[in-house]
Each structure stands twice: as C-alpha cells, then as structure tokens.
Amino acid sequence: MDQQDDKPSGQGRKPITARELAQLIGVSQSAVSRAFTPGASVSPKMRERILTFARELDYQPNAIASMLSKRRTNIVGIVVSDMENPFYPALIERLSRELQKIGLQSLMFNVTKGSNIEDQLMALRQYNVDAVVIVSATILSAATLDWATENRTAVLVNRTIPDSKLTSVCCHNSEGASAIADHFYELGHKRVAYVAGLAHTSTNMERQGAFITRIAELGLTLAANLDGTEYSYESGYNSALAIAAKGSVDAIFFANDILAAGGLDALRDEAGLRVPEDIAVAGFDDIAMASWPHYSLTTFRQPINQIVAATVKIIRTGSAQPGRPAKTHLISGELKVRKSTIGTALT
Amino acid sequence: MDQQDDKPSGQGRKPITARELAQLIGVSQSAVSRAFTPGASVSPKMRERILTFARELDYQPNAIASMLSKRRTNIVGIVVSDMENPFYPALIERLSRELQKIGLQSLMFNVTKGSNIEDQLMALRQYNVDAVVIVSATILSAATLDWATENRTAVLVNRTIPDSKLTSVCCHNSEGASAIADHFYELGHKRVAYVAGLAHTSTNMERQGAFITRIAELGLTLAANLDGTEYSYESGYNSALAIAAKGSVDAIFFANDILAAGGLDALRDEAGLRVPEDIAVAGFDDIAMASWPHYSLTTFRQPINQIVAATVKIIRTGSAQPGRPAKTHLISGELKVRKSTIGTALT
DNA sequence: CGTATGCTTGCATCCGGATGCAATGTAGAT
DNA sequence: ATCTACATTGCATCCGGATGCAAGCATACG
C-alpha cells in the first residue's frame, strides 16, 4: 500500500537537463547548449569536455525544448491516405528514409473518407511542422490545403491541384500515357480501351486525357473508356470483365498497376483470354508486383527515387515557401515493356 | 531586387499566441490556457468567450509549448522496417488511424540494414515520445531496445524478443502453424514442406517450430524444410522451384503470404503443377492479395484490427511502462481456407 | 447580516534550451 | 609595454503554455 516512494504510473527517473549537466561540470548552461550546436562559438576543448561528460552521464538535449526556442521542429508532416496501393508505402518509406538522412523525422497524418479531414489537418498546424508533404489522392479542396499549409513549405507529390498555389512533384503522367498509346500503336493494335482510377484525381485525369488525345492522333479507336471509382484490384478485375464481355478490344491501358493486375487476372483466369495474344494490357507506376513473373506487366515506371529526391530538395532548399511562385516539377518516367504486351503468352 | 520588406526565406506572419489573445480579450493568459484544457477550472461563459475570440482570430495553442510544459508529447514513435510486405503498411495505417482517434500522432522511424540503428533510435529518445511501438523484424538486440525505450511505454508488435523486458502483441503463431498442419492432415497429405522467412525472427521460429512439432504429432513427413533469408516473393518463388524439383511433396506451408504468392506462381507457371491437385499451398497473414481470385490462398489470418486494438489499449492504459511486468498478448487468428488447398484447380 | 464553502481568475513561475549582449581573456600589432 | 581585435564564456531573457497558490467573488447557511 505504501507506494509513496515512487510514482505509480511514472516514467522512471527523468533525464538529466543541460543545466544539471552544466552544474556538474562547472560551466554555464549556454556552454552545454553551444557544445551541441554545430558551428556555435565554443572552444574545441570546452566542447570536447562537455561532450565527454554528456556521454558519460547519458545527457541528450531535449528536442522539444529545442523546437520551442528555435522555432523549428525538424519534423515533416506527411499527409497520406491510399496505403492500399503499394506504390504509396514504397514512396513514403523512401521519403521518410531520405528525410532522416538530413535530420528530419516524419509525422504521419492519415486522412480517410470516414474522418473529418479538417480536424486531422488542424493537428498539422498545431505541431508546427517545418514542411508538409501531401501524397494523398483524397479530395482536399484548394482552400483546405492552403489553410492547413499556411505559412509553411508544402509539397504535393503525385498530384496537382488546379487552383492551389502549392508546389508539386509529379511523374510526367501525360508523357507516360502517350508512351503507352504509342506502344499499343507500334504493336499494331487498333481498338484500345482505358480503365480509369479514382475519377477526379489529377493522376487519372492527366493519364486519361493524354491517352485519349494520343490515341486519336494515331488514328486508333477508343473502344471503351470506363469510369472508375477507385484504384483497386477489384475495380480492375470488374472493368476487365466488362470489356471482355463487349469483345473486340485489342489492348487495355489501366490507370495504374493495381487495376491492371486485377484486369490481367480477370482476363486470363475468368474470361479465358490469352495475354498478350488475345488482348494486351498495360499499367502505370511499376510497383514491385508488376515485375513478378506471373504478371510481367508492361507499365510506365514512376521513378520513386527521383520523385523523392526532388521532394527532399524542395524541402531542403525551402523553395516551396509562401510567396515563392508555385511550380510543378515533372519527373520523367520510363516505359517498361514486359510480357503483358509482347512475347509469348503466359500460362 | 528589393525584398527588404519581408524575410526572403521567412515563414510569413507568425501565429497569434495565448498571451496576445488574452490581452486582446482582456483576460489572463492562464484563462486562455484553461479554456483549451478539458476539465480545467473555468466558467462556461469565460470558456465560451475565449473560444469564440480564438476562432475569430484563428488562435490555436502551440503544441510544442504544450509538450514542453506538460512533459507529454501525444506522439507515439513507430519503428518500422519491412514496408515491402503489404502486411506492415496495412498494420501501420490502421494503427496510426486508431491512435489519431485518441489524439495521438505517429512519428515514423524507419530502420534499415544500411543505416545505423542506434543513431535512428537516438532520435526516439530526444523526441520524448509518449510511447514506442516496434513493428520491425530487423535485428535489434534486447539491449539496444531497452536503451531506446528506457523509461517509456513500449510495445513490440508481431514479434517477441526473448531477453527483453518489453511487452508484446502477437498473433498466436504456433496456433496458426498447428492449424495449417491439421488442415494438411485432414486433406490427407503425407509429405509436407516448410519454407522459412527471415530465419532468426520470432515469427518465423514460432511458426516453424509449431508446424514441425504438429507435423510430427500427426505422423506426417517433413519432406523439406527450407531456410530463408527474407520474406519476399522472389524467395518464395525460388524455394518452391527447389521443392518442385525434388518432387514428392504434397503440401507446402510458407512462413507468410508473400512467400506463398511467389511459391504459387512458381509452381503453376514455371513448374507446371496444378494447385491444389498436385500440391497444396498455404501461407500466413491473410494480406489483401491472398483473397484475390488468382491466388485464392489458404492462409492463417492475422486479425489486424484486434492486434491494433490491443496495442492501442496498452498504450492508452499505460500498461507497458517500466516496472510493470512484461506480458505477451497472444491474439487468436483464424484459418481461411481457400482454393490453394481445396476445390478445383485454378487455371 | 456575517461567515463558511467553493468556484473563478490572475499572478508568478516553471518546462529545457537558444541566443543577444556584455564581460573576460588572449594574441597580435605598434 | 600598450592598445586593438577577436575568440570565449557567462548572464539574462525569451520561446508559448501549464499550473500551484492565493486573492476575489458569489452562493449558501446559520
């Protein structure tokens, strides 16, 4: 019953502070602070002495206090939503790793249809993150975003928003969609189809627009143009079946690889068609699965490394701060031709 | 050239503080603080008045300052590493969403083989996160972990560490592996195989151990027991080919679904076997892909919702703080029987 | 009508570092 | 040897809220 000697739910002993350390060494707290600040005005011997003691006494500067006085958090807020599509985990993992390399941590903000987005984003402001990266395709109005990212560096990744003043980094979607169209043309396909992802997203609209335009230029027929409500395997599966049922389509361009994967399986396993002999299939993104032997999917590769590099550079140089003109950085991708459009049939 | 009127790299105007707000309204700063603190001692009218003005003037409490004085960050550090396996993104997304519901944000710490793990974890301590969740299978010694999580709530998810005093939440791996063994037995298989994931991980060892034990109890033959160096599609693919080459195996249990997916594709597309007629296949996790028609993979489902719920509860109640006895929470899973072990052949 | 009880509110101070400025010390110049 | 210039170090204060304590005030009760 007597637990008065230690807090029942306490956090153990609390860490040593700069002032305590300073007192133990017999220097001022400022000296300690400076010893831990690269480039600060301290003599090498003083710094050495302090760092030695610090190591010994297990002192580490409190990041929170530092944030408060420096008015800088070294934290980047990442707004995400579509973690079902492997492209995003891959992107986010790489991004957060690269940010860590330059001393920035990643605070994740999941926004989902179910939740109140404004509430979620409210936290973004309160935490005073140094920068915000938005990799979510979820509907966010330009106004909401401008509010949430007010006065701080902000980057949209893999999407653009027409009326927003935000900088964005995107794969060159229209280039990619055109490349797919060209590829279909070169293979001699005449009647092609497009299967959309989430309809209103910029990625979908750009890919769809460029594909249809290029198809027309090449004199091919757009035999089907399916609306989409999501970027999912199931959606691709069902769309492919619908197209197969109508018949007379040579090749399908799916708005991304997940859709294409669903489509491929539907065409082969359920519709009984041979890919690519009976019908060719292409996707977009080049997620890991696309190169699996089973899928071997022709797709337009989004260069994640370059996208991340561009994003990190923008954050590092602060070239996306309010007042700066918004800029859209288009990253070139690369057509990866695999067996879903050429070569021998699978299975 | 003349940009002297505003800071070139500045963050725009800075937000209003509690003191400023208080002065404008004519109350004390403490009143403002209390108005934003649920349960604090303020009259309803006072709170109302302050909140109204706050809304009007776009005041929001600075979370950093709050952390410093409350000695509480409302941030949970999540240590991750294996984002290639879809199971983890799914888990993390759900976890971070549930945490958000109770007002906690997620700070991601990616640890990778390439990077110095101790350096990464150093940040964990500096940020004073309220709790740490480790969902990484990467090698972390008990000592490293104890140091990184010293004095704070810490939970291991989907793994255990023998000599560590950390609480963990795991799917009941041995139950699952036994269930798979029973399932193989009931189907009449005699010669079965195990394909390992990352060898030293607790998940792999538990699944392997229980499977082999149960197999022996049932009088089945362990015809192959392949070591593994990673949980990847390619690894599963190659292992399956090795087993197919040896021949005379009725059923394979892969340590997880990604391995099983690779294995399935290899057996069907490359080895030319029918699944499940010639050989049955089972996995573990029940990732989204497992239920795709193409794979239709029999697997032991890890109940992500329950795992997350248990984890969140531990964090919420603080039942994993230093001093408390470490406990391993075993969550029961469920065998999902699909076409990779029963029914008609696919393709 | 005086006083006890409790609720509100403000004051002062703390959380742990960062930093401008002044004080001190040292070396180099004359 | 004297003075100037610069490198170090410490002091005091600030960052923006949280909170213990005491003063202020209203309601309740005798």
From TrEMBL, chains A, B:
The keyword Membrane does not apply. Keywords: DNA-binding, Transcription, Transcription regulation. GO terms for molecular function: DNA-binding transcription factor activity; transcription cis-regulatory region binding. CDD domains: HTH_LacI, PBP1_LacI-like. Residues 16-70 form the HTH lacI-type domain. PROSITE patterns: HTH_LACI_2. The keyword Transcription regulation applies. Pfam families: LacI (PF00356), Peripla_BP_3 (PF13377). This is LacI family transcriptional regulator.
